């Protein structure tokens, strides 16, 4: 079946300003607060789970209550740390971190699923944890990608980031119910092996990192939630296409079910990438959007040819990594949706998400 992809998505983002900045003198925030997850606790309160960066580029996941005034996020109340790089596979000899968390409340499982980047001996790897209250997290471990012969590649060999889960079970490629995640493999192994070696899966001729989808059968997860860490049926969803995403794209907040399908806010990167895992200072991160097919979210129905939000405000242009808008969380308050995003790898901003279609 042929699917026509349109170049506009009927949503817009309007920046509202800075929600959270590093607290002066706070040990764990010396390098900034950024790229948060979010969720509601059982009592209905709304929480932000920011990445907090300490000296030495050591990242932890904190927790802060979102304070609401006049129906919009207006500030935060810090309440500690909920995840630190305590596991051996979250630490290397010169780096440590549990980075860039995303959380999805999966009602059918009764848990929040946190995906995060474990920065271990071989660079960034996706890992999962679960919680029923956003405060106490149980590690499920690193994600394992089942070998798929038609790809002629072991996805476990490659660094991977930007993992987000769909909030409900969907139909898998075999027609059975499955829990699905989006992710973003990196095919350049130069940071690990040295040099500039790129190894592409069979059938892929574009080395730029894009968004993929993988699945776990729902019956396996309901029997044991740890099955979420074993994924299969890997498929490419989208590659960079437009100028603002010329270098790479990656998923932002968990997909949101809307009338047209699944709304995915994503980030696109343009500019020039430096080799390795160090800070990137010559790139530009902007936020775009895609609509994924409601029945098969591996299919893109529409995507934005220009950014919904780009780094124009001073707080987005100046910081640890300049010119960064990096969306990672989305929540609804009194019927209005808000997107939370990292600003220049230093602060957390908030933007209002609106539909441009008439009610």
List keywords for this structure.
mainly beta; globular
* Integer-rounded radius of gyration: 19 Å
Would you report the number of β strands? 23
Q: Please state the average pLDDT score.
A: 93
The separation of the N and C termini measures: 31 Å
Helices and strands, in order, run as EEEEEEEEEEEEEHEHEEEEEEHEEE
Based on helices, strands and strand pairing, what is the structural class?
mainly beta
Number of helices: 3
Strand content: over 45%
* Poorly predicted tracts of residues: none
Main β-sheet description: 8 strands, mixed
> What overall form do the CA principal axes indicate?
globular
Describe the structure.
This protein is mainly beta. The chain is built from 3 helices and 23 strands. The strands form 4 sheets. Strands 2, 3, 4, 5, 6, 7, 8 and 9 form an 8-stranded mixed beta sheet that branches. Strands 10, 11, 12, 13, 14 and 15 form a 6-stranded mixed beta sheet that branches. A hairpin with a 4-residue loop joins β6 and β7. The longest helix has 6 residues. It is globular and about 50 Å long. It starts with 10 loop residues before the first strand and ends with a strand.
